[in-house]
Specification:
The chain has 63 residues and is mainly α. The protein has helices at residues 14-19, 28-38, 46-59. It has one domain (6-62). The protein contains three helices and no strands.
Length: 63
């Protein structure tokens, strides 16, 4: 199935508010996982952001 409008994907601030926020009630567990396993924190969030956008654009048609 093709991901509609994959070339227009925007992550917004969900990475910052939730996925990489060690203070978020539910997101903190994900943030700790990203930090411990991948070394990704709020300070270098562009690593995961670029990887996600690239995957959406390149592999979106295979999702």
């Amino acid at each position: 199935m093709k991901l509609p409008n994959s070339n227009q994907a925007i992550l917004g601030d969900k990475l910052e508010r939730y996925c990489l926020n060690t203070q978020h009630k539910q997101g903190k567990h994900k943030a700790l996982l990203f930090q411990k396993r991948l070394g990704i924190t709020l300070e270098n969030k562009e690593i995961i952001e670029q990887a996600l956008l690239r995957a959406i654009k390149e592999k979106g048609s295979n999702l």
